[in-house]
Amino acid sequence: MYRRIPFIACLIVAIAAALASAPQAHAQQAPQSGLSWQQRFLGILPLVKPDPKDPIVVTVNGTSITVAQVRDYAKTEQRLINANTTDETRAVFKDAMENLISRQLLIQEAARRHIKIPEGEVAQRAREFQVQGISGETMSSTGNAPDQILLDQVRGSMEIEKLFDEEFQKHKVAPGQQEIQRYYDEHKDLFVQDPGEVRLAHIAIKLPPNATDAQKAEGMKRIGKLREEAIKNKDFAALAKAKSEDTPTASKGGDLGYFMKGQLPPVVDKLAFSTPVGQVSSILQSNLGFSFLKVTERRGVTYAPLGAVKTKIAMVLLDYNQEYIVKNMLKGVAKDAKIRFNKLPGESAQSSRSEGFARIASRIGDAGGAETLHALGAFGARSAMKRASRVRA
């Protein structure tokens, strides 16, 4: 057990770096909506009344997608993923345009394969939808005759659903016992019941009191190089003895001792118990300096038995397999598609050709929205129930 209590203060204050560095890591990656394929192509329906004044933003093999349709779809997606910042909102509008293009390509592929849905089934499914008004109120369409716009959109979703059902059956996407067992064995860290204890070591670089920006930058540079060296060098203890500036632990190869879950400050605790044995953590920063951890050992850990998590694993693998089929189909149908982006009012044709849909999505997102209705229907829940029944089978 770790007994050098005074040094924990240094480790505790070091948590600031993990938080400070997080926005930079996110900034390097394009925002992801996190929506499932069922939500993207089945559940979000742009219920926009035709308007000859509504600008056409893109045509997909001759079929038009308008500004109002993109805005309508994006507003629903924005609520689903709780997008609040300007960057998130713009990313949502870009994603909405991509999803509407993909949805149209899939509807066209279903038509090419002569997939038809009986009108009675379309009308019944349309009645299951919940139509949400612009002020947020929810109105059930059950018992009322669905309007033609809703019927057309629901028909398209049902055609896509049947298209993928056929593909999923052909490719046998339901995972088998061996696949489930392999996932369990390779991802046991996801099924920890009792995390037990971790043994930690660290390498630290100190900062002088009231360090300047230049000194902090130099410290970050030094600790970054040491972390890279620690990743490559198998002898972490020797590196800690030679380079760590925390003298009491350096003499012991950076060893900090064992810690149980909850003993350390929350951010450090999470980092310690999420870093695999034998690997080093991200850099921690505080007003005292910089450091990084290495998890040298874990003991007392227990895992949920396979039987308790088998259904969850099957669902994860089924979703993954389905997404793989969806992505491959979209690549295929988009390969020879004729997709043309139109210029918006007030811009040149050259601008439209040179900047593509990212620019257009940004323009649409900044422009605000017209008063439209949004629909999010029963497809998400229905698809989840289908997946669950396949897993149980």
Molecular structure report:
- This protein is α+β, with helices and mostly antiparallel strands and 393 residues long.
- It has two domains: 5-28 and 196-300, Chitinase A, domain 3 (Roll), CATH 3.10.50; 37-173 and 338-392, Triger factor/SurA peptide-binding fold.
- It has helices at 5-13, 16-27, 37-43, 67-81, 86-112, 119-127, 148-171, 177-186, 213-232, 236-243, 247-250, 266-274, 306-335, 349-366, 379-392; strands spanning 44-47, 56-60, 63-66, 130-132, 138-140, 192-194, 197-206, 255-260, 284-286, 289-299, 302-303, 339-341, 373-376.
- The protein has a four-stranded antiparallel sheet with strand order 1-13-4-5, with helices on both faces. A four-stranded antiparallel sheet has the order 8-7-10-9. It has a three-stranded antiparallel sheet with strand order 3-2-12.
- Strand 9 (284-286) and strand 10 form a beta hairpin.
- Helix 5 (86-112) crosses helix 14.
- The longest helix is centred in the last third of the chain and has 30 residues, at 306-335.
- Mean pLDDT is 79; it is low at 1-32, 132-137, 351-355, 357-361 and 363-393.
